[in-house]
């Protein structure tokens, strides 16, 4: 027994000594990195003999710090916004117009960049939601009830009406594609729609379209909206897919429609998306085919994307500017958004009397002809508004969780 006890003490002593040695090693490495970093910041003429000796002694650290600097420079360059000069921009749009004319099955992939003209911030731009969160800055709440489909949304709708666009795959949750008049069968909202809540207890899943943001009480892995299904009394949930989640709803995600469209596509036009998320969905890029049999790829974005090297054409410009010139080249008139014709008003499900105070988000204002019938049903609850669950909160919660895990 005494021998076992001594063995146990010995093992604990060795473990503590090992842990202490690791701590000392990490501290030594930290000091070495600090020293070498300070020397490298000096110009060569300012370095002393002792500095040169330290650089020679710690060559591995010098190489690691140089690699880190290269990575930082590359990342900074990827985040920069570039604009094509006027002549090159015009020539590229003409090339895109010809591709649209010749396409047999054109699919459009859209990201946050097509909604910035509606005063909805993007995500990875210099002032984007995730860029700000990465820098530790707060993201202000945006009132999306005032947002309307942009020129780009209306161009896409018209191109579909002219049978020049067959399907739209969107990462946006703002519902603006639907509000532009684009038919639902031609739309896949891969990350959900902020105006739609569903009852998954019903079979098939029952859908409720609302005139307000249903995500104010939801977040990552927490999707209950606080309302109940009028048919089975089951809890309603939002349709948003956050980072770390897998979207399984048939609608509005419509993965089946997206995959089938990609399979048939001969041209893919990416508008305002960084493609850092979309690139992970292999079925959208026909990666199971040889490179020469994949759809031709056209990208409109101000920043670098991971698909740039595979693109037939990359246009550095704002989506509205590109689409305005594209429609001019195609000789197609751009329709103006008319709130009176917004399909969300005819598709929306009215709240029950006991639900009129179940949300605090501002309702989308109906056109003048409908104001008299809805002016007494604002549904606004007293007190401060709750931040919407889809706009940045899922990202920030995921980052906090990751930091705790480390």
UniProtKB/TrEMBL annotation:
<feature type="active site" description="Proton acceptor">
    <location>
        <position position="191"/>
    </location>
</feature>
<dbReference type="InterPro" id="IPR026590">
    <property type="entry name" value="Ssirtuin_cat_dom"/>
</dbReference>
<keyword id="KW-0479">Metal-binding</keyword>
<comment type="subunit">
    <text>Interacts with UBTF and the RNA polymerase I complex. Interacts with components of the B-WICH complex, such as MYBBP1A, SMARCA5/SNF2H and BAZ1B/WSTF. Interacts with ELK4, leading to stabilization at target promoters for H3K18Ac deacetylation. Interacts with histone H2A and/or histone H2B. Interacts with DNMT1. Interacts with SIRT1.</text>
</comment>
<feature type="coiled-coil region">
    <location>
        <begin position="79"/>
        <end position="106"/>
    </location>
</feature>
<dbReference type="GO" id="GO:0097372">
    <property type="term" value="F:histone H3K18 deacetylase activity, NAD-dependent"/>
</dbReference>
<dbReference type="GO" id="GO:0010821">
    <property type="term" value="P:regulation of mitochondrion organization"/>
</dbReference>
<dbReference type="GO" id="GO:0000785">
    <property type="term" value="C:chromatin"/>
</dbReference>
<keyword id="KW-0175">Coiled coil</keyword>
<dbReference type="InterPro" id="IPR029035">
    <property type="entry name" value="DHS-like_NAD/FAD-binding_dom"/>
</dbReference>
<keyword id="KW-0520">NAD</keyword>
<dbReference type="InterPro" id="IPR003000">
    <property type="entry name" value="Sirtuin"/>
</dbReference>
<dbReference type="GO" id="GO:0140861">
    <property type="term" value="P:DNA repair-dependent chromatin remodeling"/>
</dbReference>
<keyword id="KW-0808">Transferase</keyword>
<feature type="domain" description="Deacetylase sirtuin-type">
    <location>
        <begin position="86"/>
        <end position="333"/>
    </location>
</feature>
<keyword id="KW-0862">Zinc</keyword>
<dbReference type="GO" id="GO:0005634">
    <property type="term" value="C:nucleus"/>
</dbReference>
<keyword id="KW-0597">Phosphoprotein</keyword>
<dbReference type="InterPro" id="IPR050134">
    <property type="entry name" value="NAD-dep_sirtuin_deacylases"/>
</dbReference>
<dbReference type="GO" id="GO:0046872">
    <property type="term" value="F:metal ion binding"/>
</dbReference>
<dbReference type="Pfam" id="PF02146">
    <property type="entry name" value="SIR2"/>
</dbReference>
<comment type="similarity">
    <text>Belongs to the sirtuin family. Class IV subfamily.</text>
</comment>
<dbReference type="GO" id="GO:0035861">
    <property type="term" value="C:site of double-strand break"/>
</dbReference>
<feature type="binding site">
    <location>
        <position position="199"/>
    </location>
    <ligand>
        <name>Zn(2+)</name>
    </ligand>
</feature>
<dbReference type="GO" id="GO:0040029">
    <property type="term" value="P:epigenetic regulation of gene expression"/>
</dbReference>
<protein>
    <recommendedName>
        <fullName>NAD-dependent protein deacetylase sirtuin-7</fullName>
        <ecNumber>2.3.1.286</ecNumber>
    </recommendedName>
</protein>
<dbReference type="GO" id="GO:0070403">
    <property type="term" value="F:NAD+ binding"/>
</dbReference>
<feature type="binding site">
    <location>
        <position position="229"/>
    </location>
    <ligand>
        <name>Zn(2+)</name>
    </ligand>
</feature>
<feature type="binding site">
    <location>
        <position position="232"/>
    </location>
    <ligand>
        <name>Zn(2+)</name>
    </ligand>
</feature>
<feature type="binding site">
    <location>
        <position position="202"/>
    </location>
    <ligand>
        <name>Zn(2+)</name>
    </ligand>
</feature>
